[in-house]
Amino acid sequence: MDRFWLKNYPAGVPADIDPSIYPSVVDLIEESFARYRDATAYVCMGAALTFGQTDELSKALAAWLQSRGLQKGARVAIMMPNVLQYPVAVAAVLRAGFIAVNVNPLYTARELEHQLKDSGAEAVIVLENFANTLQQALAGVTEPGNTRVKHIVVGAMGDLLGFPKGLIVDFVVRHVKKMVPAFSLPGHLTFKQAIAAGRNAPFSKPALGPNDVAVLQYTGGTTGVAKGATLLHRTIVANLLASEAWMQPGLKRHQLTGQHVIVCALPLYHVFAFITCGLLGMRTGALNILIPNPRDIPGTVKEIAKYKINIFPAVNTLFNALANNADFAKLDFSGLVISNGGGMAVQEAVAKKWLAITGCPIVEGYGLSETSAGVTCNPTDSDSYTGTIGLPMPNVEIKILDDDGKEVPLGEAGEIAIKGPQVMRDYWQRPDETAKVMTPDGFFKSGDIGIMDARGYVKIVDRKKDMIVVSGFKVFPNEIEDVVASHPGVLECAAVGVPDAKSGEAVMLFVVKRDPKLTKEELDAYCHKEFTAYKRPKYIEFRSELPKTNVGKILRRELRDGAMKKAA
């Protein structure tokens, strides 16, 4: 393929990088443990872990997991926000030879149940704040039991914060803020107990190769059924090395030396932060500032203010919220050299305000769970916002395809298709779904409509499917409609995405009542129970009927267009 865009690469960025120099992600992170042993790797709530401590703790937890009799390739779910236990848990699972299953800790019991069953997870590492949800999921929401979970580790916010701070934090979280609902998980161990037991257990380094599975990253893909994108060790290594190379022009331009400081406000269970903060930070010996609750903007600003930050990956909504915070504008941004936007479209107004405040332009990139995060990005030594998602990164090939799978001329719109070692192997145990998104010559069809210009820069103009993107998270109408339709008061429904100043898009729900007494408040309460926050409909509108095709298919586009006209 003629990768004509390579001539527009920043100086020093290679066209290709050989991921085989590291047989596995484990080889890469263990090299970092040794190289940066005494440096601080993570800070959270005033406590810190060095690379050496992360090495020791993760090795102990890995030994404990192995002692449970799990076989190589067993799936271990990690259900935690950005706390110090998260990087320890991920490293432990991978080092033990198992497959990490990233789980959104804010999932409802129904959502969690599906992911546990689909992945076949045999162990779960969960923060106690979400243990009650796990209890419900294991009991069965849609049907009794049937998960394979046998081993559970329950962490607490204060576990790694030291004495007496850890005790104080746990007391406040449990008894003052009442953030830990009562739970019963017979046979579980606490995080500290598992670490202690692991220190006395033998650890056997597994033989891992490039084609072994490292992570199941769940996504709706191009349909509403949550599926695991199967990310191999070589897949993740390829993305890490390409991302590292892509950063260099931005770092060199500002002559940034010494340890880099990364703001990790994006949730680590999301592929964007998982790669660009967690693993890339580990690879480069960076200091990661873990923000457990980025929705607390004042708290986030207070935490960031303690450090001279260098790299800030975020979604548009977070950039926007911070740019509109008076205290944030007072911070010292002299060290900020890369602001990496992803997950959702960066709005020009937000980019301009961010640049005016920080002096650092947002370089927007693009990626998906299926591509283990980034596949395109604007050069990190850019001066301004471009309105594009940038150039294909090292190793990546991109085509713009028409509905027949044929490449369109430059400047014409079509579906963005991606090929390279960063692309997933398949959807976990879903050959039918995999076949829908992979072309015969190995390109992954993203479902996003884009245009590539003569320089190789890509701009997203639309989405092929009815997917809704809320603050960078994919929401699929099918899932929303299936759950809402199960409410006894609902006859039929449709979910669409509508523009939202804060989150980019929001879910709007159209409902035809079965029960005339059904109220918006009742339906809203039902959705709060069934969906994690970003999936919940922000707007509910009752209709006497919904527009349909002549074969009875609900016309979501007509509903969406009508809602947008009304808003205008």
Summarize the structure.
This protein is α/β, with parallel strands linked by helices. Helix content is 33%, strand content 23%. The model has no long low-confidence stretch (mean pLDDT 93).
Which structural traits does this protein have?
568 residues, globular, 33% helix, 5-stranded mixed β-sheet, alpha/beta, 7-stranded mixed β-sheet, single chain
Secondary-structure blueprint:
Elements: H1 25-35, E1 40-44, E2 47-50, H2 51-67, E3 75-79, H3 85-95, E4 99-102, H4 109-119, E5 123-127, H5 131-139, E6 151-155, H6 165-176, E7 189-190, H7 191-199, E8 213-219, E9 227-232, H8 233-253, E10 261-264, H9 271-284, E11 287-290, H10 297-304, E12 311-314, H11 316-323, H12 326-329, E13 338-341, H13 348-358, E14 362-368, E15 373-377, E16 391-392, E17 397-401, E18 414-419, H14 431-437, E19 444-452, E20 458-463, E21 468-470, E22 473-475, H15 477-485, E23 490-500, E24 504-513, H16 520-530, E25 539-542, H17 556-567
Parallel strand pairs: 1-11, 3-4, 3-5, 4-8, 5-6, 6-7, 10-11, 12-13, 13-14, 24-25
Antiparallel strand pairs: 1-2, 8-9, 14-15, 15-16, 17-18, 18-19, 19-20, 21-22, 23-24
Global structural class: alpha/beta
Average of pLDDT: 93
What characterizes the major β-sheet? 7 strands, mixed
Q: Mind telling me the C-alpha Rg?
A: 23 Å
| Biggest β-sheet: strands ordered side by side in the sheet | 7-6-5-3-4-8-9
Large-scale geometry: globular
Count the strands?
25
Kindly, what is the distance between the CA atoms of the first and last residues, rounded to a whole number of angstroms?
A: 44 Å
Helix content: 25-40%
Contiguous uncertain segments of 5+ residues: none
Strand content: 15-25%
